[in-house]
Design a protein that fits this description.
Distance between the termini: 47 Å
Largest sheet: 2 strands, parallel
Number of helices: 2
Order of helices and strands: HEHE
Number of domains: 1
Length: 65
């Protein structure tokens, strides 16, 4: 059973979306995006292997390289 679950996870494509949001705002953004994805693409075979994750991207000062 565990091997089957691992194979299913490995076959998924993970898309990362970065955001400068942090904390509760980031959690809400993640939740809303997943909800929208399910509403619009649930049942579409070509999108069934895609998983979306919103991650925090720190806001760096403009003078850094």
């Amino acid at each position: 059973m565990e091997i089957k679950q691992r194979k299913e996870q490995q076959s998924k494509h993970k898309w990362y979306i970065t955001s400068v949001s942090n904390g509760e705002a980031l959690i809400n953004l993640q939740r809303e995006l997943k909800s929208l994805w399910q509403d619009y693409f649930d049942g579409e075979l070509k999108f069934s292997d895609i998983e979306i994750e919103v991650i925090h991207r720190p806001k760096y000062p403009s003078n850094t390289k």
